[in-house]
Amino acid sequence: MDTKRLIIVAVGGQGNLLASRVLGAASLRSGIPVRMSEIHGMAQRGGVVESALVFGDAQSTIISDGAADVLVAFEPLEALRALPRCNPDTVLVTNLAPTPPFTTAIGKGTYPEIGEIKEILSRKVGRFIAFDANRLAVEAGNPLAVNMALVGALIQTGVLAISAENARQAIESTTKPAFVDINRRAFDLGFAAADA
Q: What are phi and psi of 66, to 5 degrees?
């Protein structure tokens, strides 16, 4: 497999780190070497959490500006903030349900219109997949399953040489038993959403 560089951005508490673990386990099940790194920032206060995963033969997890093959964003404004990491061939998978930052809640900032964010994002990347992952998570049985809906959409793109079955098995091996069925349902809903 050619080296593929993935950036995942989220707000603290959205499950970015579990998504990274699932993708790492699925990659190893698929016989693909993977390197991962994480930046937690002020995650416990709703700040940015970023994961970088490099699949294939690579010596570093550093993904320079313009070098991401894939960007997965759990929140649309975070997708906008991470856009410099993308290039005209990047595949972007994003949740469209906003999680406004604290500054917006206290009236110190404004959140851009979702339509405006979508327009900017879609013009800057090669393939743009956007849907309400929060709605799919609720449909799957747990509003916290946004991460698995986005992992499902990512796997459906085919950018990574990871099969859906290897991803489902990774969900089973990396999540708590009580959440496996919900997470697999969310994965399947996200997989289908990316194919729409």
A: 80, 5
Give the β-pairing of 91-95 and 127-131.
parallel
Residue with tokens 């349902």: 185
Please tell me the distance from the alpha carbon of residue 128 to that of residue 123, in angstroms, as a whole number.
9
**pLDDT, tens only, 141-179:** 999 999 999 999 999 999 999 999 999 999 999 999 999
Q: Cα separation of 142 and 119, whole Å? A: 30
Single pTM value for the model? 0.93
Rounded CA separation 170/151 (Å) = 11
What 3-state DSSP class applies to 160?
A: coil
Transcribe 85-146 into DSSP letters: G--TT-EEEEE-S----HHHHTTSS-PPPHHHHHHHHHHHSSEEEEE-HHHHHHHHT-GGGH
What is the residue extent of each domain of the chain? 4-98+112-195
> Is pLDDT of 139 > 60?
yes
Specify whether the CB–CB gap between 57 and 25 falls below 8 A.
no
The CATH number that domain 4-98+112-195 falls under is 3.40.920.10
- Give the separation between CA 192 and CA 155, rounded to whole angstroms: 10
